[in-house]
Amino acid sequence: MLRSIFAILIMLMFGGGLLYGQKNQELEQAVSMELSGDWEGAVSIYKDYIKRNDDEQAYILLCNLLKKNGEYEQAEDYLKDAIKLFPKRLEFNIELFLLYEQSGNQKKAEKHFNKILKNLKANNTDINRIGNAFLSARRLQHAKQIFLKGRELIGDKTAYSFQLGSIFLQEGDYESISREYLLMLESTPERLAQIEANLAALFVKDSIELPKIVEKQWESLYRTNKKNPYFSQFGLWLHKQRNQFDKAFEMAKYIDKTFEQNSGGGMTDFASDLAKSERYASSEKAYRYVLDKGEENPYYRRALIGLTSVKYNIFLQNPQNKKQHQDLLTSFQEVFDKFGYAKDNFETILQAGEVLAFHSDKAQEAVDILEKCIASKSFSINEKAEMKLLSAEIYNRFGDVWQASLLCSQVEKDCKNSPLADRAKYYKAMLSYYNGEIEWALSQFKSLRASTTKLIANDAMEYSVLINENRDQDSTFSAMQMFAAAERERFYQNFTAAHAYLDSISQNYLYHPIFDECIYLKALLAKDEGNIDQADSLLKNLLLKYPYDLTADDAIMSLAEFAETQYNDIQSAKEYYQRLILDYPTSLYVTQARKHYNRLEKQDDQSREKNNSDLKTKK
Q: Which letter does DSSP use for residue 189 in this model?
């Protein structure tokens, strides 16, 4: 209420111009008196003003003040006058209804609502205004009646589905929500994208029960709508929403064969979407389906490149797997043999450069490929910058810091004031950090905290805090230099050297604030070396000793991922994600943790649903 008075006061002061100045002064005086507590004086001015002026805002201010003071009969009279004077201002009718409710006269309120309902016209704008006004007042039942009556008046049985869906969600009426959207799908299938977007928003609020009911109703309708491509597309989307990827794959095949003349285009899009969601096994299956159509298929190239990217991401999860390593190298070679080092293969070129240099002892081959592409006219400045940054990483790993720094400087110059320039600056800062130039690196990290690239800004902030909080007692950085060297060796997979640097820290210091970071880095090294049990034990030890230090949230996130992906302990994973969300609300992992937690909750519900179904079948 107070906020609205201030808003009106500001409008009166600045919105009226010279012609309206005198009137504004009167209302300003009334508002000021109301704010100072002189309600009787304010009412007197409003009433006198209204006698001389037909002004909507004055009626609003007066009626609000009268209601606030319990003068319901007077407020009612003035609202009725306003309704007659301003018939297009439909909100006055809602205000009168709310006044009757506020004064305890429910009978009058319902009578007036019925009058509003009876006078409703087939005008979409008015229906929306009145219905949304009731929604804003949180009168869900009344809003629902308005929208349902409006639907009848304009003759569109799918109108106002979004508003009604929101009402049904608040009422917990999932059957009606599902019915609304499937009715819309059946009668206006061309609105498929809108239907999916609206349902996706509702699924965020209830990701378990609502999708299950929608699927059940869709399955019932689908039996008689199999020849409707929109129904099949919706089914594909719904299966993906419910993480039913086997069902989704079968639906994608049906769509390809029935509606797309076996082109493979929809399946390629499906595979790409799965890859973006890190559903690599299902994505690989979908890409192989397209590749099986043969090289003459128009989507063969895209599918081969997509499959290679999937293999690359699977390999990164377990770089020690020699079979996956060799399979990936074969895929890289197949892409380059068939399509060359072309612009369309840009992502594959970067992936191949990384794997050849850092996982295959073929650094020179990687650099040769990248330099050949950098010299080509086929690639854009930004693409060449990406390749230069990868080359810089390779040069640095094998000892040529000067060449690495030079390439970063070229990217800064070529891509000024861009995220790529910030990446180059960040990488130069990391070069300095890895090589023990801690003070200079700190100054660079501080300047990068304002980067427009969120990831770089967050990483720069993290390193700034890490360095500032881990100085030696004499304000030098001896321990930090050893820790940075350990990080460098781990980054380049020289694990023995990384362990040696960490051991040096524990040998040279009885205590140091960097000890928690050392434990966390040891856990990461254990994971890199395939010793998950040791990594898990180190992380749990870290949480016991340093529950509120910088690495605590990192440790919890890693423990959650171990529980889920390594030990298949879904309950423990959910507990870790929940702990991160509740105990570390400022962590950068919170959004990711919430996403994983909701996904596991959904999987649990689906598992329970399947078990119940199996039990019923047995009975």
A: G
Residue at token pair 């005198």 = 22
Nearest-angstrom CA–CA distance, 352 and 394: 12
State both tokens at 500. 């040696």
CB 286 within 8 A of CB 306: no
Q: Nearest to residue 413, comparing CAs of 391, 434, 428, 395?
A: 428
* Tally of structural domains, the chain: 1
Q: What is the pLDDT of residues 485-521, one digit of tens each?
A: 999 999 888 899 999 999 999 999 988 999 999 999 9
What was the pLDDT predicted at 190?
A: 87
In angstroms, rounded to a whole number, what is the distance separating the alpha carbons of residues 144 and 127? 11
Question: What amino acid is encoded at 405 in this protein?
Answer: S
Region for residue 444 given its phi and psi (left: phi exceeds 0; alpha: psi -120 to 50; beta: otherwise): alpha
248 contacts 240 by C-beta, under 8 angstroms:
yes
Q: Tokens at residue 535, please? A: 């990594």
Distances from the Cα of 234 to the Cα of 177, 181, 189, 366, angstroms: 16, 11, 10, 44
CATH code of the domain covering residue 559: 1.25.40.10
Note the pLDDT of residue 613. 57
How many Cβ atoms from other residues are within 10 Å of residue 128's Cβ?
16
Token pair 């005008």 is at which residue? Answer: 123
Q: Does residue 62 fall inside a structural domain? A: no
Q: Which two tokens stand for residue 66?
A: 């009268």
Asked, for residue 598, whether it belongs to a domain, the answer is yes
For 210, list phi and psi in degrees, rounded to 5.
-60, -50
Q: Which domain holds residue 558?
A: 517-618
Closest CA to 57 of 18, 22, 98, 86: 86
**pTM of the predicted protein model:** 0.67
pLDDT at 70: 83
Span 537-557, pLDDT tens digits: 999 999 999 998 889 999 999
* Lookup result for tokens 């069902």: 247
Are 567 and 535 within 8 A, CB to CB?
Answer: no
Task: Name the amino acid, one letter, at 220.
Answer: S
- Which of 502, 464, 503 lies closest to 483, judged by CA? 502
DSSP state of 512: -
**pLDDT score at 160:** 85
**Is there a contact between 472 and 478 (Cβ–Cβ < 8 Å)?**
yes
**Residue 335: left if φ>0, alpha if ψ -120 to 50, beta else—which one?**
alpha
Instruction: Match 């870290």 to its residue by tokens.
Output: 542
Which of 531, 532, 477 has the alpha carbon at shortest distance from 505? Answer: 477
Structural domain contains residue 346? no
Q: For residues 388 and 410, what is the distance between their CA atoms, to the nearest angstrom?
A: 8
List the chain residues with pLDDT less than 50. 1-22
Show the tokens assigned to 88.
């297009």
- In this predicted model, what pLDDT tens digit does every residue of 40-74 receive, in sequence order? 888 888 788 888 888 878 888 888 888 888 888 88
Residue 450 resides in a domain: no
Per-residue pLDDT tens digits for 177-198: 888 888 888 888 888 998 898 8
